[in-house]
Amino acid sequence: MKTIKLSTQLLILFTTVTILSAVVFGLVTYRNYESIYLGVAKSELETYVDMIDTAPDVVDYYNQPFLGHIKVKIYDDIEEIFDDRLEISENLLEFETENAVFFDMVFEAYREGFEFVSKNEITYYLYLKKTKEITPSLSEYIVGVMHEKRVAELKRSTAQSDVLLSFIGTFTAFAVIIVAGNIILALWSREMTKRIRHLSTQVSTLGESGFQKEISVSGADEITELGDRVELMRIEIQQNEKTKQEMFQNLSHDFKTPIAVIKSYAEAIEDGITGVEDAKVIIEQSAKLEQKVMRLLEYNKLEYIDFTKPFEKVKMNSVISKVLEDYKILLSKFKLVIKLDDSVFYGFKENYITVVSNILDNATRYAKSKIVITLKNEKLTIFNDGIPIDEKYIENLFKPYEKGTKGQFGLGMSIVQKTVNRFGYRLSVQNIDDGVMFTIES
Hints:
- There is one protein chain.
- This protein is of the alpha+beta class.
- It folds into 3 domains: 1-204, no CATH class; 222-303, Helix Hairpins; 311-441, Histidine kinase-like ATPase, C-terminal domain (Heat Shock Protein 90, 2-Layer Sandwich), CATH 3.30.565.
- It contains 13 helices and 13 strands.
- The strands form 3 sheets. Strands 1, 2, 3, 4, 5 and 6 form a 6-stranded antiparallel beta sheet that branches. It has a 5-stranded mixed beta sheet with strand order 8-10-11-13-12. Strands 7-9 form a two-stranded antiparallel sheet.
- Strand 5 (123-135) and strand 6 form a beta hairpin.
């Protein structure tokens, strides 16, 4: 599939939107010409009435075929016509003969109406002008009347040129906008794509540099934010790689010792230097090696938790009861304080059994005489009255292969943290007055 540059897409989008806007604007303008023509008609009607009032002798002007007038006296306070004998121009009488229609025209104009439709379905346009005040309540008026055919003439005489000029002006303006906008957008998009390419180049060479080269993008926008996120990802990958290397080194050291012991004792038995009774040392070392391998497999298995399956509602009191039953002999030498409610955690029961087992295993190695397990309001705490953890060690407590003074495999707390994090919970540890407390909460 052929790729289209982002800058080209932006230019096409801008041009398309501008052209569509021009078309819509042109159509709206065209639809509005009706009101424009009526405005021209009203202006001509006003001029006609002014001529009737100020220069009645200019017969050639006001005797146009489709312009007429009515002279009338009206009582302003009661809106009543003074005299039933209206003075109506001859050209108006050519279209209407009923006196009632002229009265209706007068009252419509007096109410500031502009458009009037007669009984004959003819549309007239009206304009009222007060020409003389006879008494405080009686005034003389001229009502200008324009036939609908005059408006049609105005449309025919001006529509072609006005519409053409309007459309030419509209599309010329939008053409200028398109050209200027595309130039500005092209300059802007070139700068944006330049920064994106720069970021892309840096990302593509991350592996080559062993994730050592810092990612940086100038500016203060979303592209910069993306660059910052990539930089955080680079740092995290770098730290993970460092942790992986340390794990390999620790694994090599942890496996090397029991393997060397097993080998030396096996060779001694083979050479007759020692008896078969020393085979128990081989069995002990093999058991230790097996435990290390199982812990490592357990840690690695967390990467493959099936997140496509919906999490279960796990009753933590049943999990804790199961672990206490498994550890009852080991825990028999401690004073246990158990306070459990019906709190439910989300995840998988098997994994939570591992979590509680590892924390309790840790507690039995450090506790002096007391272990307190409290489950309340979706929060689990496990306390032991052992010596406080060194503050420097707390920072790395959940790091793989970090061992305390009585640590065994260096993976127990890492497994706990990794498990609860994958289920959306948080593991924390803190020194309190008389011991150490581990907490799991959302």
